Amino acid sequence: MSKFDQCGIFYSVFVRKLRIISEKKEGATISTQDFRVNETIRIPEVRVIDHKGENLGVISTREALQIAREAELDLVEVSPNANPPVCRVMDFGKFLYERTKKEKEARKAQTKIEIKEIRLRPKTNEHHRGFKTRDARRWLEDGMKVRVTIRFRGREISYPELALEDLKEIAQELSDIASIEQAPGIEGRVMSMLLMPNAKKIAKRKAAIESGEIQPVVIEDESDETDEDFDDEDDDEDETTDSES
């Protein structure tokens, strides 16, 4: 083995260790151990795609390594189960960085989904419910999930079908931009459902608005409206049924 080959192996192992340490510090889930790189590719022949995207066909691994060295790049096994395995000539460090970056962005996109809530009562009038539904629409169009909650007081719990009907109507009204992720259910004195934005429906609706096919929903200011009836949870325990005379 020439001194050049020995230096190449040393450099490859050294950089490999540095990358593993760096990835652990950054919390990356992609490991260099998932790939065979340069001298760790032990098979005699591989199919090679060069750094320009050209298929060089099946050549010896030694020749493939030489091509990578001349380009001052790495030989990376990208399809180990192919026959023969497929390798690409690339900057392995840059490849790992970009792949890890994409994975982090995907995780951030998942964790950024915020859940908003609209709170109603079984006796909420249509005017007030309309404002709440329009709030839900705005949040859904912004990519947030929305939990619709109805709290019962006293004898109201005896008529859950009324609240269920309210939830169904809200879901139907928002069906042009949302889907039901969690069906209506009761826990204690609360009935709720969870709506999730439907990206395809939202895009379709926006296109229809831009073309003038439909009119956008106008979000009015409801500064005078409050949720005081909903927030006063202590009344749930204090409220008693009427005595019969």
From TrEMBL:
* Compositionally biased region (Acidic residues): 219-245
Pfam families, from UniProt? Answer: IF3_C, IF3_N
Where is each Translation initiation factor 3 C-terminal domain found? Answer: 113-198
Q: Which GO terms describe its molecular function?
A: ribosome binding; translation initiation factor activity
Task: Give the span(s) annotated as Disordered.
Answer: 212-245
Keyword field contains Repeat: no
| Keyword Plastid tagged | no
Record protein name field: Translation initiation factor IF-3
Organism from which the protein derives? Flexilinea flocculi
Q: What is the lineage of its organism?
A: Bacteria, Bacillati, Chloroflexota, Anaerolineae, Anaerolineales
Q: Which gene encodes it?
A: infC
